[in-house]
């Protein structure tokens, strides 16, 4: 019974790992910075799940569950910091550059 | 510069790759690093087989970290403390009237709403005690499951960082002021060094915890090692917590500790 | 003081779940840790300390019931997203809009619960709260019509008998 | 193809560590921005840690934490669940087979390196902020230009 | 046995929802709609996968450790339920504050538009 | 050690490392470095180095991203390369 579920864990883990690829695509393409941040958030959640899966595959879940818990608790600090950063800075329309040169900046903050 | 960088990188890479073939196969249980050379076993084999008899600690990594290689870890902790102090020295602007330096990008243009306080504030209010408890759990259970002083300290520091992000830096500093965190950092190092010096005071080597069963109640020589490791981990956790928050508070306010990110 | 004891016992229960070792040494460590956390951040867990414990208990029971309902809503919302994402004609149904929603809820915690519930239910995410106005991003007209105030009534029912003590 | 089979596949991890390390090194040499250099430094550092951890891997081994020893009840259950392992290894710790556990020594060496690494990253970021305070830029060429002109404001 | 079947069904359902979130993340037109896919798909699917493994852990009831692991996995679910909507909201708000204009479908309106206009005038 | 996980994660690692160095927006680069740290934590967990993975989890998710964002807040977000 144990081996059978271990196989389930490995297959599920493979699929989950391959499903990291779409967020990665969003990270590579991502037109704006915040698209990338969203993708990072998704990968973070998926990592917490993956750690549980790896624990089942090792048959030592009681050891791995601890840092899945750490991920669940700490994962949103990064996105929160990025959100705070975007809050406190000039609106850039998602890019690091002002939208259309100096004029746009002047109209936004006269 | 670009071409020079590429050439240097390629040269180093080829040099390193030429050595890769000489390594043992990946995952080989009998490679020299894992099994020793010839009939002489490697030290890691000794750690795996004898740690539990020596110290009654199931987590081998914690035992090696805090006991067998305790001297190393003590000065790693000192390095972390020194990093905190040097950030203090580099960034902190002390004395004199606070000059309002304009941040290059910092213009708070947001629509003043209540969502920050209501949603993020409430979540963080509910999460922070749990995170702190979890951090202490990680420190206390480093013997039986992965974890220990470094991890617990980082998580505990992160909880204060979360408080600073959810409210503002002032709230977090109100709980964990500059004086407190610098003191806590020193206290952590002193706890670690104190365990070592206590052993020396009892006429044994530095950080040789076995002798401490004379002054610890209800322990034998083996359990003394286990409990001293816990004490040492607590010291590490204090230092790491203090320094993580010190780094954050100085970086996010550019050394002025007025208002952060 | 009462609330400190409540915080301490909640944290101690959490510790026992985390720990799983029930020998005297580790339980002592747990008491020390829970006490420490209570000392440094007891004011964070419960903000309003005027409510009596029995009302808290009733609220907690109703809150649990509400969370079960919410879980079902989350399943519905995911099936919604799955349909939109996987069906070839799904993108035509995506007609995003931002709608304004008025609420009569008073305390922060109720507002927090409403905002997170809106975020978790089909097709809607809270963007901003300004005073009593919620600005909600809805992915389609259907989703926007789904905000008919049922959720608000349910949340108001949870905290119904504490309006005097609260605020 | 033969080269791939004999040299790349058995040493896959070592190849990737060299690639990652070279990515980091290239960034540290050629990037103009100081923060980018720090990103490269982080990648370089993790590549080294990856190398160390790869050395300690044994195929078919488990994590370097012994099974439950504190109570007999769980011990029996654990021994039942782990059929691959001789049951007496739980009772007599002298019979622990080193091949069943990953090598703990690289883990110990690298664990402290990560936390020390984040502290040194903090110091580097502090130095960057301080440079920005003095020169108003984080681009290497602009800073060099300003130093050449001698126009750096030493006191702010 | 029955526990295992339930666990496998839950895990499979979780993976399907993850797939939906991933496809939505690629296909949807703008940042706000992508956030719908990301924020919701992720919450439920991680919940389901973790719940599946939790039920698998719960099955052999003989040792005390397994119940503890079960409870810990439930705690992970609870924390994901609490933090995920919050970070979704924080990112959504940050995106709006960063000046990304939402795509408005036909028949829809942007109730937030006037607040942005008043801010620009200030 | 689970070989298929190993290979997939290593490929993803190289991709994220390259991307985080190629983006011009430093905020994005920092966040992508966060993904890199998540992936490398998975790699170490999968190799059996639990304590190292735990440290990386705490550091990568909790503090290092925040430190870099704090620095970018006080300096400049745009990079010339």
What this model shows, in words?
The complex is a heterohexamer of chains A (110), B (261), C (167), D (156), E (122) and F (81). Chain C has 167 residues and is mainly α. Chain C contains 7 helices and 3 strands. Chain D is mainly α and 156 residues long. Chain D has a single domain, classed as Helix Hairpins. Chain D is 67% helix and 0% strand. Chain D is built from 7 helices and no strands. Chain F has one domain. The radius of gyration of chain F is 14 Å and the shape is flat. Classes of the chains: A mainly alpha (110), B mainly alpha (261), C mainly alpha (167), D mainly alpha (156), E mainly alpha (122), F mainly alpha (81). At the B-D interface, helix 1, helix 2, helix 3, helix 4 and helix 5 of B face helix 2 and helix 6 of D.
* Elements of chain A, N to C (H/E): HHHHH
The overall average pLDDT of chain A, rounded, is 81
Model regions low in confidence, pLDDT < 50 over at least 5 residues of chain D: 69-94
Rounded to an integer, what's the Rg of chain A over CA atoms? 20 Å
Largest sheet of chain D: none
Structural class of chain D: mainly alpha
Q: Main attributes?
A:
heterohexamer; A: 110 residues; mainly alpha; elongated; C: 7 helices; 11% strand
Put the structure in a nutshell.
The complex is a heterohexamer of chains A (110), B (261), C (167), D (156), E (122) and F (81). Chain B has 261 residues and is mainly α.
Task: Compile the SSE list and pairings.
The complex is a heterohexamer of chains A (110), B (261), C (167), D (156), E (122) and F (81).
Chain A (H helix, E strand, L loop, with lengths): L1 H17 L2 H9 L3 H26 L2 H28 L12 H8 L2
Helix pairs in contact in A: 1-3, 2-3, 3-4
Chain B lengths: L1 H19 L11 H4 L7 H13 L4 H9 L1 H22 L23 H26 L8 H18 L2 H7 L2 H24 L19 H32 L9
Helix pairs in contact in B: 4-5, 4-10, 5-9, 5-10, 6-7, 7-8, 7-10, 9-10
Chain C lengths: L1 H18 L4 H22 L7 H34 L3 H4 L3 E6 L5 H13 L3 E7 L2 E6 L2 H5 L4 H9 L9
Antiparallel strand pairs in C: 1-3, 2-3
Helix pairs in contact in C: 1-2, 3-7, 5-7
């Amino acid at each position: 019974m144990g081996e059978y579920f271990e196989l389930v864990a490995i297959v599920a883990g493979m699929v989950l790992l391959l499903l990291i690829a779409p967020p990665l695509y969003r990270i590579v393409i991502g037109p704006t910075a915040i698209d990338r941040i969203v993708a990072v958030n998704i990968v973070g959640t998926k990592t917490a799940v993956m750690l549980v899966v790896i624990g089942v595959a090792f048959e030592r879940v009681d050891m791995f569950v601890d840092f899945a818990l750490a991920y669940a608790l700490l994962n949103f600090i990064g996105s929160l910091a990025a959100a705070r950063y975007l809050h406190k800075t000039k609106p850039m329309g998602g890019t690091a550059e002002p939208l259309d040169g100096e004029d746009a900046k002047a109209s936004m903050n006269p | 510069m670009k071409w020079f960088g590429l050439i240097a990188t390629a040269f180093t890479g080829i040099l390193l790759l030429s050595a890769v073939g000489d390594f043992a196969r990946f995952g080989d249980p009998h490679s020299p690093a894992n099994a020793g050379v010839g009939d002489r076993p490697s030290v890691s084999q000794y750690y795996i087989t004898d740690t539990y008899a020596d110290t009654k600690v199931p987590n081998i990594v914690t035992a090696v970290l805090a006991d067998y290689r305790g001297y190393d870890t003590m000065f790693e902790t000192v390095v972390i403390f020194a990093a905190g102090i040097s950030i203090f020295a580099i960034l902190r602007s002390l004395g004199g009237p606070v000059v309002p330096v304009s941040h290059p990008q910092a213009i708070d243009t947001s629509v003043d709403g209540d969502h920050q306080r209501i949603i993020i504030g409430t979540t963080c209010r509910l999460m922070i005690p749990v995170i702190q408890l979890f951090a202490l759990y990680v420190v206390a259970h480093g013997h039986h499951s992965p974890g220990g002083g470094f991890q617990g300290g980082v998580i505990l520091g992160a909880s204060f960082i979360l408080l600073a992000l959810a409210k503002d830096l002032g709230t977090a500093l109100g709980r964990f002021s500059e004086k407190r965190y610098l003191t806590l950092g020193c206290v952590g190092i002193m706890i670690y060094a104190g365990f070592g010096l206590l052993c020396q005071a009892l006429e044994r080597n530095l950080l040789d915890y076995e002798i401490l069963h004379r002054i610890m109640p209800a322990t034998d020589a083996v359990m003394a090692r286990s409990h001293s490791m816990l004490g040492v981990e607590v010291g590490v956790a204090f230092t790491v917590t203090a320094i993580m928050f010190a780094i954050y508070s100085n970086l996010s306010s550019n050394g002025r500790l007025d208002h952060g990110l | 003081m009462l609330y400190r004891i409540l915080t301490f016992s909640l944290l101690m229960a959490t510790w026992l779940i985390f720990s799983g070792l029930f020998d005297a040494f580790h339980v002592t460590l747990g008491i020390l840790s829970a006490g420490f956390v209570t000392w440094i951040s007891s004011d964070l867990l419960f903000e309003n300390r005027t409510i009596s414990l029995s009302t808290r208990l009733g609220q907690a029971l109703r809150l649990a019931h509400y969370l079960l309902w919410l879980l079902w809503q989350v399943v519905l919302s995911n099936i919604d997203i799955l349909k939109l994402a996987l069906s070839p004609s799904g993108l035509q149904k995506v007609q995003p809009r931002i709608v304004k929603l008025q609420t009569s809820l008073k305390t922060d915690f109720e507002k927090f619960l409403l905002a997170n519930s809106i975020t978790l239910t089909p097709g809607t995410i809270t963007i901003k709260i300004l005073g009593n106005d919620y600005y909600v991003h809805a992915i389609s007209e259907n989703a926007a019509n789904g905000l008919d105030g049922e959720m608000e009534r349910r949340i108001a029912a949870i905290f119904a008998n504490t309006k005097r003590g609260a605020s | 193809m033969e080269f791939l089979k004999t040299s790349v596949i058995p040493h896959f991890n070592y190849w990737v560590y060299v690639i990652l390390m070279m990515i980091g090194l290239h960034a540290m040499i050629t990037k103009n921005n100081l923060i980018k250099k720090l990103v490269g430094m982080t990648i370089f550092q993790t590549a080294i840690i990856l190398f160390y951890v790869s050395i300690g891997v044994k195929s078919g081994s488990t994590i370097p934490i012994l099974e439950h020893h504190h109570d007999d009840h769980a011990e029996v259950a654990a021994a039942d669940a782990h059929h691959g392992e001789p049951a007496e290894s739980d009772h007599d710790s002298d019979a622990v087979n080193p091949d069943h556990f990953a090598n703990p020594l690289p883990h110990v060496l690298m664990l402290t390196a990560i936390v020390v690494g984040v502290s040194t990253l903090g110091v580097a970021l502090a130095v960057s902020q301080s440079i920005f305070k003095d020169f108003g830029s984080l681009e290497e060429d602009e800073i060099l230009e300003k130093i050449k002109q001698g126009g750096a404001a030493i006191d702010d | 046995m029955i526990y295992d079947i339930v666990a496998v069904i839950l895990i499979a359902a979780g993976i399907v929802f993850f797939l939906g979130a991933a496809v939505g993340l690629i296909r949807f037109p703008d940042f706000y709609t992508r956030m719908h896919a990301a924020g919701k798909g992720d919450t439920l699917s991680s919940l389901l996968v973790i719940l599946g493994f939790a039920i698998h852990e719960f099955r052999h009831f003989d040792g005390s450790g397994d119940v503890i692991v079960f409870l810990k996995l439930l705690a992970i679910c609870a924390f994901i339920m609490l933090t995920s909507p919050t970070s979704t909201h924080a990112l959504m708000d940050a995106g709006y504050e960063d000046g990304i204009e939402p795509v408005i479908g036909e028949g829809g309106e942007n109730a937030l538009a006037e607040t942005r206009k008043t801010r620009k005038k200030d | 050690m689970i070989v298929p996980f190993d290979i997939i994660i290593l490929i993803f690692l190289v991709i994220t490392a390259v991307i985080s160095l190629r983006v011009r927006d430093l905020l994005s680069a920092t966040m992508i470095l966060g993904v890199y740290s998540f992936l490398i934590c998975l790699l170490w967990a999968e190799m059996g180095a639990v304590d190292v993975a735990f440290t990386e989890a705490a550091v990568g998710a909790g503090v290092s991203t925040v430190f870099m964002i704090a620095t970018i807040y006080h300096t400049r977000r745009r990079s010339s390369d």
